[in-house]
Amino acid sequence: MEVKIALAGNPNSGKTTMFNDLTGSNQRVGNWPGVTVEKKEGRLKGDRDVVIQDLPGIYSLSPYTLEEVVARSYLVNEKPDAIINIVDGTNIERNLYLTTQLIELGIPTVVAVNMIDVVRKNGDKIDLGKLGAALGCEVMETSALKGEGSHEVARRAAQLARESRPVEAPSVFDGSVEHAIAHIEESIEGRVDQRFLRWYAIKVFERDEKVLAELKLDPSLTEHLEQHIADCERELDDDAESIITNQRYAYIARVVSSAVEKKQSGLKMTTSDKIDHIVTNRVAALPIFIVVMAAVYWIAMGPLGTFLTDWTNDVLVGEWAVEGARGLLEGNVADWLVGLVCDGIIAGVGAVIGFVPQMLLLFLMLSILEDVGYMARIAFIMDRIFRKFGLSGKSFIPMLIGSGCGVPAVMASRTIENERDRRMTIMTTCFIPCGAKLPIISMIAGAFFDDGWWVATSAYFVGVFAIIISGIILKKLKAFAGDAAPFVMELPPYHAPAPSNVLRATWERGWSFIKRAGTVILLSSIIIWFLQAFGVENGAFGMVENNDNSILAAIGTAVAFIFIPLGFGTWQATVGVVGGLVAKENLVAIMAVCYGIAGEVSEAGEEMWGILASEYTGIAAYSFMVFNLLCAPCFAAMGAIKREMNSPKWTLAAIGYMCGFAYCVSLMIYQIGGLITGDVGFGVWTVVAFAVLAAMIYLLVRKNKYGEYGERLSERKAAVNA
Amino acid sequence: MLPLSLAEPMVPQSIAKITGKDEVRRHLAELGLVLGEEVTVISALGGNLILQVKDSRIALDRELANRIMVRG
């Protein structure tokens, strides 16, 4: 018989490690319906009839975060046959808060007291028998990290699931509260699944909006129950929800004091605290953070990363794949097919594959920082700075990942609970130059600025300033009004990275980058190759000798006027921009094709630097670079934005904002900058550029009209005065 | 009563009152921050605090720290 077991627990309780241990590679990753919370499901190793459903890490079953809503509706609506509740043994009191709520669901539950090795090392003792008797469920010990006990827990849970005995919930509440809940139970019996009776009764007591809406009790009954609840509130001088919370904690404190023996109680400075005293120190925090980040990027982008990238580009793709395919095909198939496969598909997809080693290296570093526990501290350190322009410290992590690839960066915004903050993070995170934008930067730096180091540095500054300016401007709009959500976050203790967790996280992020090579980029490489290879020449349609006659050139010429005010209104640059939407790293190769450079071009397009320098001025080139850094990201990242925004309106708003912002900034750079350098004369567009500048300054400094809930402050003031 | 942001570090404090929106209070309760609970400020970074609550470390910003009153 197939059984379904849900794996529930607090964040940082070792749930992911246990899930990986139980299911190995038998996993399916998807999304929970309607929301962008990751859903992982797998089959138990050694017993494939057991399906293990990993629930998101949660602190309770109240609907504060998306994760809690998802977990709660799964448990109540899908009714798994058993629950494994993984509990951090070193922080048992807080973790049992969720446990008491899970037990009330009436589903057979096995509590896995995890990190038992650390508990023992601390000299603490947990009496599993006593704990189990008090909680009314099975309690076992595990050390997921060391692979101890997990499978025993899963087997026991499967056994309980198959027996499906009724579960007796312990009496957590006392006095009038228990009385009121029992009374509610009687009143709603028959309206809900018998197993969930207690859970529903408690939720009614708490006046949980979702449950009340679901039950649709008749008004007279609601009023009758409301009297009981109000009586309790008066007696205990507290609101119903707090009463439940407090009695829960009181019950847990009793259970823990009888079943857990702590060697050392009270305050102690752990090693973790000592590290925190240094890395979150008022003075040292930022310098340490900068050093750590510099090391991460030096490893990923420095000698090692460059070596791996060069090898992949030149040897793996350049020599083996392209030449191998050419040797195989030439003479056997039509010439155009050779061109399509070698110059179109392999070169196009290969350009993307070239980034994979660097990207994986960067994600490996970031995953280590995450697993060790430093990432949570980064959010904490950066919060103070980010709050000044309306973003939370949690927005910083997506931006760090964004320096590698925008796709996992946009996905990383999921951890931000507040919807406004999350949307704003998604809209701004792609401003950070991702790995694929680096060739554009090196091309411009090489062709126009003598390889000046300041070009790349300024590109990152442009990205950071774009985020800051956007933060300030957007926060004054109604849709984003109000301060960033209060920052509160659990800091897991530092620990050595677990290789399996780190590798898995690296691979999941890297895979989202690689996947698009096989889909979006493959398809667009084919299309663009056709468009540039075919056209009308000498009055007949066919393959063209001269690129200027291709269909691509015709399309580019038709829309190039849009970019004239920005200084790069040529069809080649226009096609480059469009190619950049497919994949930013494609831009250089596509422009080379447009300029009729035959054969393989280097990553930064050195072969066409001469042509570029003669076609564009320096200021136009810089404007071109900035436009490509800030405008809509590649299709893959736009797809990620669409998934995470989960709304066509917001997706369009995000992409439209990025493009509009990029256009404005480039316009100002070219027109005003050109005026200063003497490359551009005074004209209508100069006036427009100054108008844009004035508008932007106004948007930056104007007063905030909206309060925290998007209400107009002027109206509130009027109401107060009245 | 004084706000947690002014409490002396490394001295256990008892929570007397938490003000603010329900959903934030609920989330704080989930993390163990409830009336009567003992908290200790482990370190402070320009008003942002790291607390010990039960056996975990919770980071929160200055604004939130101002909403938690302790007996002092």
- CA-based shape of chain B: globular
| Main sheet summary of chain A | 7 strands, mixed
Cα(first) to Cα(last) distance of chain A is 69 Å
- Estimated helix fraction of chain A: 55-70%
- Profile the largest sheet of chain B: 6 strands, antiparallel
Shape of chain A: globular
CATH topology descriptor of chain B: SH3 type barrels
How many structural domains does the protein architecture of chain B include? 1
Name the beta content range of chain A: 5-15%
The oligomeric state of the chains shown is: heterodimer
Low-confidence stretches of chain A: none
CATH architecture of chain B: Roll
- Please give the CATH class of chain B: Mainly Beta
Order of helices and strands of chain B: EEHEEEHE
Number of helical segments of chain B? 2
Residues in β-strands, percent of chain B: 35-45%
Helix and strand composition category of chain B? alpha+beta
Quick one: how many beta strands of chain A? 12
List keywords for this structure.
heterodimer; A: 722 residues; alpha/beta; seven-stranded mixed sheet; two-stranded antiparallel sheet; 61% helix; 8% strand; B: 72 residues; alpha+beta; SH3 type barrels; six-stranded antiparallel sheet; 2 helices; 21% helix; globular
Q: What does this molecule look like?
A:
The complex is a heterodimer of chains A (722) and B (72). Chain A is globular. Chain A is α/β, with parallel strands linked by helices. In chain A, helix 13 packs antiparallel against helix 16. Chain A has a 7-stranded mixed beta sheet with strand order 2-3-4-1-5-6-8, sandwiched between helices. Chain A contains 33 helices and 12 strands. Chain B has one domain (2-71): SH3 type barrels. The longest helix of chain B is centred in the middle third of the chain and has 9 residues, at 22-30. Chain B is globular and about 25 Å long. Chain B is an alpha+beta fold and 72 residues long. Chain B is built from 2 helices and 6 strands. Chain A binds chain B through residues 59-60, 62, 64-65, 90-94, 97, 241-242, 245-246, 249, 266-267, 272-273, 276-277, 280-282, 285, 376-377, 380-381, 383-384, 387, 483, 486-493, and chain B through 10, 12, 20, 22-24, 26-32, 34-37, 40, 42-48, 50, 52-61, 63-64.
